[in-house]
Structure formats: structure tokens, C-alpha cells
Amino acid sequence: MSAYIDSRINRGVQVIAFNRPERKNALTVEMYETLAALLQSAEQDGQVRCAVFTGHGGLFTSGNDIQDFVTRPPQTNDHPVLQFLRGLATFPKPMIAAVEGIAVGVGVTMLLHCDLVFVSRSAKLKLPFVNLALCPEAGASVLLPERAGYPKAAELLLLGDTFSGEDAAAWGIANRISEPGMTLSDALAAAERIAAQPPAAVRATLSLIRGWRQSATLDAIAREAEAFRERLNSPEAAEAFQAFLEKRPPDFSRFT
What we know:
Elements: E1 5-10, E2 13-18, H1 29-44, E3 50-55, H2 66-71, H3 80-90, E4 95-99, E5 102-104, H4 106-109, E6 116-120, E7 124-126, H5 140-148, H6 150-159, E8 163-164, H7 165-170, E9 176-178, H8 183-195, H9 199-232, H10 235-246
Parallel strand pairs: 2-3, 3-4, 4-6, 5-7, 6-9
Antiparallel strand pairs: 1-2, 7-8
């Protein structure tokens, strides 16, 4: 279990927190392994009625740790990244996110799997996949157009611009806006209300409202993973990652 992931269970709510604030809660392979294991354990634990994702240090997560990602990319279907993403897509209990500060890459796409998302008014979100010569993941190619509509999904994915918590709520990525510092409190209040509901009825309701899209989401995750692997091995991605590590703008002018 990674020391950079905290987990606690209280009143039927499992809180899973990213705890690497010195690196903006960037995710490593070990952190993905822990996240996947925690979801599997929470699914099987009858005392867990709801899961809440949050981050320490006033941050959600800056996404993948680039250096770790470059050296240990998700080249196989059993990679911890894909185990976690499939776990999100199939988790049968309510999932809630409390987003403070920054949420980048998978820090945004994982929100598309959550049933309730509380986002700070001051949060900054971003989907920079194309900027890094990559492509969407976590089923975002299906879920983001569903949530935000095709025009907005195309804009967010192709331009990779930063957007606010208020934008996320307006575009259907988040349910509610919280005042800075209050997102976790608001999320926990909702989670405890859900945890007090009849659990089988909650699971049945989720199965009905999610069921039609689960197979499409899992298919999208598989297709995205294949395309992602191709992108990772591309000269464009090599230039993008090298530029990132050298803290300079990438130059894609030589590519066709």
C-alpha cells in the first residue's frame, strides 16, 4: 500500500485521499495499485456504503507523475492504471469527489465516473492530453461528451485550456460548487446522507442509471488504452515529455 494514499472508514463512508502535496498529489504506479486495491476492498466490504475521493494540501491531483509515467507507462492491460480505471467504471456503490485546488488529466477524467462532484469555486481543472501528444483516457471519450456535450468536450480535449470550478458545474462535470476549504465537508455531508439510505436500494438505483453506459465505458477504456500506448511510443510524445522535463515549450512543427 502506498504511503501517499490515505484511507479511513467512518459512518459507512470510505474516504480515499491523495497525500503527496509536495508533488501536487501527482500519481505514481504504487499509488494506482493502492487505489485499485482500495476500490476492490470497498466493493466487497458490506460496511462501506459510499466512497469519497479527496486530496491533501488544498489540492485534488495534478494527474500522473510524468517522470514515473515515462519510466513505467501502462503498456499492458493489467497495469495498475487500467486496473484503477476499470475499478471506477464498475464500482457498484456511490462515488463522490471533493475537488479543491488543481485537478489535471486523470484528476478530471475520474470525476466523470463519480455520482456527485463537489468542486471549489477556486478550483482549476485541465485536460492536457493533446498538449502532451497523448489522447483521452478513463473512458473520457464517451463520458465527457455525455456530460458536457460534444462541442464543449471537443474544446476541452483539443485545446487543453484550464477551466474553473464554476465552469465545471456549468458544463455538467460537477454537481455543486463549494466555497474554498468546504468541499470535503460538503461531500461528507452528502455521503453520510447516502450511507444512511437502504443500501440495496441505492445499489439498484445506481445499476439502473449507470447500467446502459457501463459496457460502452469499458469498451472506451480499452480502445483509449490501445491508442494511448501508441501515442506514448510516438516521436510527438517523446518531444512533449522532453520539453516538459526541460521546462520549455514543445516544438511539433516537424511532425505531419
